[in-house]
Amino acid sequence: MSPQPRSAVGAPLSRVDGRLKVTGRALYAAEHEAKGVLHAVIVDSSVGRGRVTSIDADAAEAQPGVLRVIHHGNAPKLPYRDNPGSNNPPGGRRLRVFQDDKVLFHGQPVAVVVATTLEAAQHGASLVKVRYDAEKPSTDMAAATPDQPTEYARGDADAALRAAAVRLDLTYRMARNHHNPMEPHATVARWDGDRLTVWDKTQWVVGTQTELSTVFGLPLASVRVISPFVGGGFGSGLRCWPHTVVAALAARETGRPVKLVLGRRQQYFGTGFRPAYEYRLRLGSDRRGRLAAAVHEMDAETSSYETFDEAIMLAGQMFYSTPHVGQAYRKVPLDVNTPIWMRGPGFANASFAIESAMDELAHELGVDPIELRLRNEPAEDESNGLPWSTRRLRECYTVGAREFGWDRRDARPRSTRDGELLIGLGMAAAVYDPGRMPARARVRLGADGTAVVEAAASDMGPGTYTSQTQVAADALGLAMRAVDFRLGDSLYPQTPPHGGSMTMASVGTATLDACDKVRRQAVTLAVEDGESPLYGADAEDVVVRGGRLHVRGNPARGETYRSLLARNGLARLEADGSYAGPPEPARHSYFSYGAVFTEVAVDATLGLVRVRRMLGVYDCGRIVSPKLADSQALGGMVGGIGQALLEHTVTDHRDGRIVNANLADYLVPVNADIPDLRAIYLEGEDTRADPLGVKGVGEIVQVGVAAALANAVFHATGRRVRELPITAEALL
Amino acid sequence: MSTEPASTAPPPAEADLSSPAPTRRTFIATTTVVGGAVVAGGVIGGSVLVDSENAAAAQAPPASRVSLTVNGTRRTVTVDNRTSLLDLLREHLDLTGSKKGCNAGACGACTVLVDGRRVNSCLTLAVRLEGAEVTTIEGLAKGDELHPLQQAFIEQDAFQCGYCTPGQILSGVGCIQEGHTGSPEEIREWMSGNICRCGCYVKIVRAVEQTAAGRK
Question: Which of A285, A353, A611, B206 lies 20 to 30 Å from B170 when distance is taken between CA atoms?
């Protein structure tokens, strides 16, 4: 952090964009460029694999208001150049809309209807007659052939497992989950000659910009992507999906701006998902529970045309002290669209298996689950020999156990009742590998003493606007209201994807750097300006508060930015800031940690699980915006409750159709499912992490929740459920 | 309508409801889809039968004039009979504060007040609303002075992405007016028609509770 006094950072402030959001004036993707816009509705494939043999658009085109029906038979060939450095999985061949007759999955776009009204476009889409040469799709992971595994080994896991005094061989299954942000994915596209502007729902305007530029063969500077508000993402906006290309194509073909909003059903195959997993875990330990060996075999869904990869292996390599580890991660290609990262990617799945298995081992040995974890706490990262930057997991356990009342738990399963209900307490540990990537930001300090900070960035809900304003306000020595932080525009300095818990560390550091530079410019100007009260002062002794520069400890000697700039005839001071990313090679092993405690009540007659309370304790370094970080943590718990108890994308393997592609049948938590939740962030910072001392919040808060719930269900019922979601059927 | 589940596929439900009586065309198309068309899935099945009646389809879509009051302003509009109140607000009246989350009445993002009652505007046909009084999120504040529930949402941080927020707030206003705020449990139950995927439920309940307490 800078030597500036800290007043905004760490203060529990309300959102700077709160007023816009509670009055309905925050504009999301589909709400821009309203005048004269055409409406586009995608016709999606109704077969799961095969070829389009004919498309009859006559009836659709005869509808009043329908202007065009675009499909592979009449669409222009698009360059679809490679887009390295994007979030397209390397090595694959991305779906190319309307470029050929192939159908790769149920729901793939096969045509788009463009009309003057939404009603006409929707009805027109229903009238497009598509015939197929259909084949039976392969959508069942259990029946498909995996790719070659990605492997990891240290020691001799198989031998150590054979020699171990205690052995567990457990297989966990996790359902496919869909992000289902409340705002549907949407794009408004407008061409001005060869220049393309899109308003898009995206977590990475830069990524959408590069994708559109490579798909259409345009110079990068000819594409502008704007996304000031994002109605949730959880990962679904990390990639530029085919519908965004469809919207841009439709706008080019009609010569008019086009709005395309995916229907809720279309989100289930028009954007990615958290893949289903089968995770076999074999553990070997001594009689005291000290792990000797762990063998992880992970199978996950991917598409037939791209290989989706996520950090499912890392937790098994570093979380518990284990001399012998073997891992094999296999992707199973299916006739589905390509998955994408979803909140707590990899770790939220790995932790369900590992933390359930640790609970099973604790039960097997008759050791308290926290004690078992403490016995396996590693002194360093055993996957690379690096020391931890910070690892305060023990404190998470201690604080959590105290605040939750863990010592009052009777360890025997099915030992606690409340009337007819079986009561269970469970816990799980959590870990996440937060990203840190190069980022840039720019600041202009105006003659009026207010500042504008710009970074491409995104705010899908965590509060980027607010937290970045807090960092900038302190670094500039301005009040929050004197700082206008702008994001969500590819014209602004480049930032990495808004995901992987990397925004605060990466964009925040760039913001800090830019604002520090401008403040130092002003200070230098003042101490060298003979007419300034600060003339001759040591620049290192000058601080800025409330827009006024003064000597530390002597507030009387100073002046405002306004007077300084006015006297020097300056309209503004400007600076670009940057963050170079973490040091290479790494000197520390850097993770965020947590411990989740929960109490459930199970109605054994109905198989219903109700969450009674939940507590998360987190080691995330410095918390810049405590009020918003608290909301994120509670939201992560709600996401984890959904993953554990409700969420399950169901495919009919006969035709590859997702049968519950709507919010009535794909269950997500509603208000009545959620009790009072509580989050505690350990105070402190991680000085080795980044200049802000932060470790990221957004992902870790979902990790561990599912395992804690499964462990609580076991404690309540004596029934170990190794499949997510934990449904009534599993408990009857 | 490819934006909707196949089971509610074409023609749009609105068209059925808004016609004086189901025509043979809409009746056949609907039943065909419900029965599971085979040629090319639900969406396409209807069109095979519709083809022979292209002439009828080529007429301008049925439209109606409707006068309603939106946020205190009388509006007389001619709308396609298929248009939902939500689409009227968002696409024609430039009131985009009401949100489309599922367009099927399952998420509550489109909640507005019609004659003081909370409704899902995505399931409400605009032509039904002759003489109705509609309140959307844009009409809740008095000038710069926020409605107490809007203020409470900011204070409690009862939202993150903000997309479900207008619907949550309108639903909360309804919940308070209905008197379903006797306990957190009761609020949870009566606010469960509004999904918040960011998971702000704990704070939504607090905001509703705070506002209800302030009214007493």
Answer: A611
Q: What are A75-132's pLDDT values in tens digits?
A: 999 999 999 999 999 999 999 999 999 999 999 999 999 999 999 999 999 999 999 9
State the Cα–Cα distance between residues B216 and B148, nearest whole angstrom.
13
The ipTM of this complex is: 0.97
Contacts of B144 (CB under 8 A, 6+ apart): none
Q: How far apart are CA A114 and CA A68, in angstroms?
A: 5
Which of A3-7, A53-57, B120-124 is the least confident region?
A: A3-7
Confidence bin at B216 (pLDDT 50/70/90): low
Token duo for residue A104: 């790769």
Under a CB-based contact definition with an 8 Å cutoff, are residues A250 and A109 in contact? no
Q: How confident is the model at residue B66 (pLDDT cuts 50, 70, 90)?
A: very high
Length of chain B counted residue by residue? 216
Q: Mean pLDDT across the stretch A37-42?
A: 98
Q: What is the mean pLDDT of chain A?
A: 97
DSSP code per residue over A582-601: S-SS-SSB--EEEEEEEEEE
**B24: Cβ contacts below 8 Å, ≥ 6 apart:** none
Torsional sign, CA B182, B185, B190, B196: positive
pTM of the predicted protein model: 0.93
Selected catalytic residue, list A253, A301, A647, A699: A699
Check: CB of residue A533 under 8 Å from CB of residue A587: no
- Domains present along chain B, CATH in parentheses: 62-139 (3.10.20.30), 141-216 (1.10.150.120)
A353-360: average pLDDT: 98
Residue of A671, A699, A701, A705 to mutate, testing the B interface (most B Cβ within 10 Å of its Cβ)? A671
Please tell me the distance from the alpha carbon of residue B100 to that of residue A266, in angstroms, as a whole number. 14
Per-residue confidence (pLDDT) for residue A125, from 0 to 100:
98
The pLDDT tens digits of the residues spanning A641-692 come to: 999 999 999 999 999 999 999 999 999 999 999 999 999 999 999 999 999 9
pLDDT (mean) for B165-176:
98
Question: In terms of DSSP H, where are the helices of A239-286?
Answer: 242-254, 264-270
Instruction: Give the closest-approach CA distance of A377 to chain B in angstroms.
Output: 32
Is the bond preceding B11 in cis, omega lying within 30 degrees of 0? yes
Interface of A with B in 457-496 (CB under 8 A): 460-463
CB contact, 8 Å: A672 with chain B?
Answer: yes
Establish, for the pair of chains A and B, how many residue pairs have beta carbons separated by less than 8 Å.
277
Q: What is the DSSP string of B153-190?
A: HHHHT--SS-SSHHHHHHHHHHHHHHT--SSHHHHHHH
- Looking at this protein, which amino acid is placed at residue A239? R
Picking from A596, A589, A590, the residue whose alpha carbon sits closest to that of residue A397 is A596
- Interacting residues of A231 by C-beta distance below 8 A, sequence separation 6+: A28, A181, A182, A183, A201, A460, A461, B99, B161, B162, B163, B164
Closest by Cβ to B162, choosing from A42, A229, A664: A229
Other Cβ atoms less than 10 A from the Cβ of A654: the count is: 10
Q: Give chain A's domains with CATH numbers.
A: 18-25+437-579 (3.30.365.10), 30-136+226-263 (3.90.1170.50), 387-435+588-731 (3.30.365.10)
Q: Which residue has 């290192």 as its token pair?
A: A540
**Closest to A249 measured CA to CA, from A290, A287, A300, A211:** A211
Q: Measure A509 CA to nearest chain B CA, in Å.
A: 23
Closest to A495 in 3D by CA, of A206, A197, A692, A233: A206
Half-sphere exposure (Cβ direction) of A384: Cα atoms closer than 13 Å: 11
A 12-51 residues with CB below 8 A of B?
A: 14-15, 17-28, 30-31, 34, 41-44, 46-47
